[in-house]
Each structure stands twice: as structure tokens, then as C-alpha cells.
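Q: C-alpha cells for this one, please.
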Amino acid sequence: MKRLFLKTLVAALALAAAGIATAQDIRERSFKLALQNPKGHPLASGAEKFAEIVAARSGGKLKVNVFPGGTLGGDAANVSALQGGTIEFVVLNSGILAAQVKDFVVYDFPFMFANAREADAVVDGPLGQKLHAKLQDKGIVGLAYWELGFRQLTNGRRAVNKVEDIAGLKLRVIPNPINIDWVKALDANPTPLAFPELYAALEQKAVDGQENPVSVIQANKFNEVQKFITLTNHQYNPQSVIFSKKVWDGLNPAERKVLQDAALEAGKFQRQLTRDQAGGSLEELRKAGMQVSEFSPAETAKLRDRMKPVIEKHGAAVADTVKELQAELDKLRK
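A: Here is the predicted structure, written as C-alpha cells:
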């Protein structure tokens, strides 16, 4: 017994000497987590799961308060608050971070990922980790990637069955250059708008339509203000779970480990929930009266061709990252 005690003591002293914190080092703290989608959406459910895991692993000392539905403002405002340390966590489309680190634009390339398996492999692999690491210089810590899914097109004016049907529509887009450009490439009119303003803009017909995954369309009740949905799968959105570096620098190793591990574990739950709910969300939209159409392979090929110049334009500024991404995708597709 004495020998066991001595071994335990020596091990504890060794950990302390190495500067590794233990669970006893966790202090009582509370954090705010902001996201755009409402309670009940897979991202909000993922955030709630994350809060549960953090509480359990910290013995209740660390508390994450989830603010869904854009209640703390739009993405740009959230990121600014995070950098200032007044919001600790934000979950948002990874491509929006191109405003901080230009390489993130690759996540908004139309038709970049053929399926979720490809997306998982890239964001969880060396490239995804490298991009998150680049955020540190901007006052942001990237903890994990979650998922929004593949985006589809809705509008309130007419059924869209071919690429030409998109021309002339006034479409809300995520406020960044590549999304503005691909809408222009379709001869439509892009309207950059923060997500919390979107429902009202659709209701008041300030915009004709928007594009988002079916889970977002259903959770935000866009079917109440939109009649037509076209399944285009034109863009896949990974979501970055980010944390304020200003706050992170004040955490000890034990606290950081709880948050990092919980973000990754909750991400597995969140991605699976998103994928499980996609079919059900579409069926609910049908029942709610939305008219659903889908591009033929020929129309999808035409849509891809119209997007290529946009990808080339925005890829030129991040050529090395594009090359690395393409190499990863080529490897996965062999």
C-alpha cells in the first residue's frame, strides 16, 4: 500500500512538474455560445449537447449558455464580439471566416465536395486543422468542425427547373464576395443580408428567395414565406466552432482540454443528427405546401459550368490552399 501511494505521489509530482493541469484545477466559469439557427435545428441541438458534455466533464464547474436564433446578432457581429472577449463561442459557416483568413474561401466553393464523407475527411484532416490554426493571429481559436449540410434554392416567384429560371431573381446571400459572384454568374441579383434579417426580408418580398440546407429552411419556417424549393446541392457548408483567444489565453490546460474534447465529441453527434434529419425536413416542407423540384444531371452540369469562372477567380488568391485541397480530394476519389 505504501509503495502504491509513493508511485501515485511520484506520478502526480511528475505531472505538476510538466505543467499538466488535472481536473482539480478547473475553476467555475460560464461562457456564451452564439449561433444563427433556432432551437430545434441540428446546430442548436449540437450546441446543447456540447454544453451537457462540458458540464459533465468539468463536474459542473464550466457552464455554456447557448444563444440560438441570432439573438446575439449576426455572424459578423458575433465574430467581432468573440475577438473582443464578450462572446466566448460562436458556431458559424466556415466560409464566413474568409473575412479573417482568406484561405477559408475554399469552403464556399460551389460543388467542392461531392458528399459528406469527402467533407469530413478534409475538415478533420491536415488542411482543416491548418486553416483553423491560422485563425490564432486574428484572436480566434478553432476548436472543431460541425455541419450545416448541402444548400438548396428557394424562392417565392416561380418553379426553378433549369438554370435559366434563376435569372432575374433577387436572392439573399451570405455577405461575402464569392457568394455574391456566383449569384451574379447566374444572372440573378445577389442581396447580402445577415441571417436574422432574412425571414422578414422574404415576408416583405424585399428579396425573392434564398439558399440554405433543407434543415435550415424547415427550422426557420421559410415555407411560410416561400413557395418553391429546388434541390441543387450547389454548396456544402462545414461549420467552425470557434472560441475567443482573449479568453482562451486565460484558461489553464485542464479547462482547455474539456472544451476542446467536448467540441469534437459534440461534433460527431451534431453531424449525424444533421444527416439523419435531412430527409425528414424535406418531407415536412412538402407537407407544408412547398413545391419541390430537382435539377436533371444536364442542368446540374450546366450549373457547374456557370460556377467555374467564379471558383477560378477566388481560387487565384489562395492557389496553394486550393492545390492542397484538390490533392486531398483526388486521393479520396481514387
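A few notes: The radius of gyration is 22 Å. Residues 4-21 have pLDDT under 50 and may be disordered.
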